[in-house]
Design goal:
globular; about 130 residues; 7-stranded mixed beta sheet; 4-stranded antiparallel beta sheet
Length: about 130
């Protein structure tokens, strides 16, 4: 397992953008398949996007695909989630997750595929 820490959350207005970051403690993200999830109050944790390290493949859940972009820095030390045109429906705690297990189009969105999780960063969008 790897220790992950998210940052970049905050309180914004509808229509604003945010860029979340996720870093591993004491190591790079090389060899890890990474994902972003979120959990809104009273709702289940849902997948947003994932990045596969072997071939840089990315996956997105249908709805946020056009507004959210997952990426890694060139040194593979940090995972990002760029979020544009935020709405109150995007209010949630956002988590990054990591796994050395292969992720595919049919499995990337499953929380149980990921062994390591950060503590989460709160994003609050007001109208």
């Amino acid at each position: 397992q790897v220790q992950l820490e998210e940052s970049g959350g905050g309180r914004v207005q509808a229509g604003d953008s945010l860029k979340l970051s996720c870093a591993a403690s004491g190591r790079t993200l090389t060899d890890y398949n990474m994902a972003w999830f979120r959990q809104a109050p009273g709702k289940e944790r849902e997948a947003i996007a994932a990045s596969r390290w072997t071939d840089d493949a990315t996956y997105y859940i249908d709805a946020p695909q056009d507004r959210f972009v997952i990426s890694r820095d060139n040194a593979d030390t940090t995972l990002f989630l760029r979020m544009d045109n935020l709405s109150p429906d995007d209010t949630a705690v956002y988590y990054c997750a990591a796994t050395t297990t292969l992720i595919t189009r049919t499995t990337w969105h499953l929380p149980e595929r990921y062994a390591s999780w950060g503590q989460g960063t709160q994003v609050t969008v007001s109208s």
